[in-house]
Amino acid sequence: ERAFSAGADIHENRELADADRERVTALRSDFTWHLATSSKPVIGAINGLCYGGGTVMATSLDFLIGCEKSSFRFLAVNYGQMNATWSLPTMVGWPRVKELLYSGREVFADEAYHMGLINHLVPSEQLIDKTVEIAAGIAKNRAEGVANIKQLLLEHTGLPLEEQFRNEVDGRRGRFAGLSVEDGFKDFLDRKGRKPLAS
After folding, report:
1. Which PANTHER family does the record associate with it (predicted)?
2. pLDDT tens for residues 77-91?
3. CA torsion, points 60, 62, 164, 169, in degrees to nearest 10?
4. What does the pLDDT read at residue 9?
């Protein structure tokens, strides 16, 4: 595949009336937000070019798996706009965020991997298998545990460290209230067996 997403079609956008263009932009933004805040992890397999609006969608995902064909460009600055200011900082550090968003330059697979934009870099023929393998590993865990971790991570962005810590403590108390050891560690107990409870 040549591209994961090359972004919006400029020629198509030119032909839209202003009201229609605003409506389409709002739909894209809503879709991206729903991806970012989904209670389930969403992993991106970047099989080629990821440019413009495609980078916004990609950086809204939980994390990315790339291959030698992966490349990224945050193009909004080239036409006087802005994007990914809210999503890219959660993946790479501020100095790199500023460089990528200010310049709009291309980032190839090796650099993307070393800066943390993609979590794993594999040969293109292994890309889907690697992505499915990681997803399957996550799916073995309790769904509510994964969802709660994701929710806290999203809520914590920009908060002071102590507030993040207190939220986690409160979350364990509230979200897992009433969850017995039997419920929480069922898989472990099924494998290892259950010792008789002391009377």
Report:
1. ENOYL-COA HYDRATASE, IP11341P-RELATED
2. 888 888 888 889 889
3. 140
4. 47
